[in-house]
């Protein structure tokens, strides 16, 4: 695989001196062009920190992150600006990620104009973007608060697509949406990938969501990747106890099976705790 993004032995620490805490302990993975890599793990495992490091918002303590062969970790301001076109982001909360004072047309055209695109071309591009994410063209004059959560997330996706990026970091982009809207937005991500060839680093705590969208998946546990593979293999043949627990945590309709899964999850958790106590 020739990697679009390569993360190699990434360590991230927050704080300094005695107060420094390491939250990523040497994480490595790659994403190929047009591929979706799902990054799954419980709250606090370090998923967002990985995404923010890829976006250049968090400094690596050691290790390397390279995009298309260029080292991102040591990129200066000018290189960062160039990379910002190639690597975009969609955040979890469509309510706080869009400026409520701006009309959708301005939200989408402003970054293009800042890149030197003429106002006229930017307007035409905004119409195409709205069409691509399934929003009506009259959305340009309306403000974010006039839209539902799912529609706002479509605007956020359109904004990420505007500079024609090659990678989008999707940080829990459907977690704030109801289940039906989640499925529609996930389908939109897949459709956009087919059309544009963009790659995704898809961060989620939800294994079902990761399974729906990803080609491969990495399981992150307390700052370490404990499992990597084709998403169906990771789910059908988990090798790490934490992955097994994660799978058992997903709800099933049958109450007897649900109770059985709960017991098995508790057993694995007790086993893990007793192993930690011995260590
Ligand atoms: N700026 C920061 N300063 C200090 N600690 C931080 C900072 N950002 C994150 N952390 C800590 O790093 C750890 C990993 O956080 P991170 O947000 O990456 O986890 P996560 O897996 O994305 O969790 P969640 O799903 O809850 O967002 C947590 O213990 C968090 O408190």
From TrEMBL:
Return the similarity comment.
Answer: Belongs to the ABC transporter superfamily.
Which residue spans adopt a coiled-coil conformation according to this UniProt entry? none
The Swiss-Prot or TrEMBL record annotates one GO molecular function as: ATP binding
What keywords is this UniProt entry annotated with?
A: ATP-binding, Nucleotide-binding, Transport
Report what the protein is called. ABC transporter ATP-binding protein
Keyword Transport recorded: yes
Domain ABC transporter intervals? 5-247
């Amino acid at each position: 695989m020739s990697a679009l993004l390569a993360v190699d032995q990434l360590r991230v620490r927050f704080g300094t001196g005695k107060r420094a805490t390491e939250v990523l302990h040497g994480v490595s993975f790659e994403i190929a062009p047009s591929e979706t890599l799902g990054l799954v793990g419980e709250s606090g495992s370090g998923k967002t920190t990985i995404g923010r490091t890829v976006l250049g918002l968090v400094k690596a303590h050691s290790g390397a992150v390279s995009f298309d062969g260029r080292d991102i970790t040591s990129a200066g301001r000018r290189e960062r600006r160039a990379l910002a076109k190639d690597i975009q982001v969609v955040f979890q909360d469509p309510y706080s990620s869009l400026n409520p004072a701006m009309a959708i047309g301005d939200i989408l055209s402003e970054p293009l104009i800042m890149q030197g695109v003429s106002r006229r071309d930017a307007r035409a591009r905004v119409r195409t973007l709205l069409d691509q994410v399934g929003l009506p063209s009259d959305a340009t004059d309306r403000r974010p608060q006039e839209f539902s959560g799912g529609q706002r997330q479509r605007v956020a996706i359109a904004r990420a697509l505007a500079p024609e990026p090659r990678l989008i970091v999707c940080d829990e982009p459907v977690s704030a949406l109801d289940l039906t809207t989640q499925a529609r937005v996930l389908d939109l991500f897949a459709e956009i990938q087919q059309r544009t060839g963009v790659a995704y680093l898809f961060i989620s705590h939800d294994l079902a969501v990761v399974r729906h969208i990803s080609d491969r998946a990495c399981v992150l546990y307390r700052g370490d990747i404990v499992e990597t593979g084709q998403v169906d293999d990771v789910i059908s043949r988990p090798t790490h106890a934490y992955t097994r627990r994660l799978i058992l945590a997903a709800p099933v309709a049958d109450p007897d099976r649900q109770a059985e899964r709960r017991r098995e999850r508790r057993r694995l958790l007790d086993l893990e705790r007793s192993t930690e106590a011995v260590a």
